[in-house]
Amino acid sequence: MVKKIQLPLQTASLVVGFMVWVILSSLMPFMKESLSLEQGQIAWITAIPVLLGSLLRIPVGYLANRYGARLLFAISFLILLVPVYYISEATSAADLMIGGLFLGISGAVFSVGVTSLPKYYPKEKLGSVNGIYGMGNIGTAISSFGAPVIASYWGWSATVQLYMVLLAGFAALNLLLGDKAEPRVTVSLKEQIKSVYKNERLWFLSLFYFVTFGSFVAFTVYLPNFLVAHFELDKVDAGLRTAGFIVLATLARPIGGWLGDRWDSFKVLLVVFAGMTAAGILLSFSLSIHLYTVGCLVIAACAGIGNGAVFKLVPMYFSKQAGIVNGIVSAMGGLGGFFPPLMLTLLFNLTGHYAIGFMALSQVALCCFIIVMWMY
């Protein structure tokens, strides 16, 4: 019974983690107005949680293998109570950056489930299992849509404090229902890294996830403020559109895992990167909200399917080092979401438009397409 509930429990825990991870980007239009934030400050405030959330995924993946998902989820959520409360009391950009740095812990918990859950399922089901767990991405949609609605009535500070209730509740749930007998891996972190870092497949998979998951994260944190500033949409409307992007990417993820189980994951990735190449070109030339919406939805579908397909390949190639490899690959995916918002802001300040940034995305996706074809 305990083993059967680990997938729904860990998926729900990831939903909460991702809800907390995007607090700042979801509420940025309100914070910008309240604290008189500049565009450069906004770019850093929304990018900082992504940075720490990415880098922490490597040690968190290792620790999940060593101590189990039960303790990792519970301790992470209890620690997060402090930065969430600190953000709710913020009075400056510096406060939001400090709180956002520690908020990265909530993004790092992704490594817990992808390390723990393969212990409970046979290899032929891992694509689907990781795809279902990856649907925890829906947490970003819940925050992107729900937080602005609540903030429009209660204010952004009270909205942030509501997240503390969720964190405390899920810390208790994991302590009560988590698997105390989860198999442990006691090989040292140094030994695990030494056993995989020379394997070229690790770095190719990291690159693929850098582009697919990185695109998902970058659009998630950038869209709410971008749609308000660039297309002059209402704050709640921008949140709803962002939520639509996230929902599509999230629903596509288990489809990517299922397709990876049913057919060759490399064939799936060929279609994914071809689609992202075309969408990046469209976004670089789109002047209307309608064309921009089409481009974003193609990116969402391709990113979601690609995320599922990549994590089908990880346990196939690295069954004995799944913890550390999951940590490295997912860390690279998070870093893929850290750089684009900063690059887009910089390019916009230099050129007055975003075309070069979106064209860069299409060319990186094209490089991945060529590498996948070579590997296949």
Give the averaged pLDDT, no decimals.
88
The end-to-end span amounts to 40 Å
The CATH topology turns out to be: Growth Hormone, Chain: A
CATH class: Mainly Alpha
Quickly give the structural class.
mainly alpha
Question: Roughly what percent helix?
Answer: over 70%
Note the main sheet: none
The coarse silhouette is globular
- By CATH's scheme, which homologous superfamily applies? MFS general substrate transporter like domains
Our count of domains comes out at: 1
Write the element-wise H/E pattern from the N-terminal end onward.
Answer: HHHHHHHHHHHHHHHHH
Q: Enumerate how many helices there are, as a single number.
A: 17
- β-strand percent reads under 5%
Which spans have pLDDT < 50 for at least 5 consecutive residues? none
Described by its quaternary structure, the protein is single chain
CATH architectural label: Up-down Bundle
Q: How many β strands by DSSP?
A: 0
Radius of gyration of CA atoms, rounded to a whole number: 19 Å
3D structure, described in words:
- The protein is mainly alpha-helical and 376 residues long.
- The protein has a single domain, classed as MFS general substrate transporter like domains (Growth Hormone, Chain: A, Up-down Bundle), CATH 1.20.1250.
- The chain has 17 helices and no strands.
- The chain has helices at 6-21, 23-35, 39-55, 57-67, 69-88, 93-108, 110-116, 126-134, 138-154, 156-177, 189-196, 200-231, 235-262, 265-285, 289-317, 322-351, 355-375.
- It is globular and about 50 Å long.
- The mean pLDDT is 88.
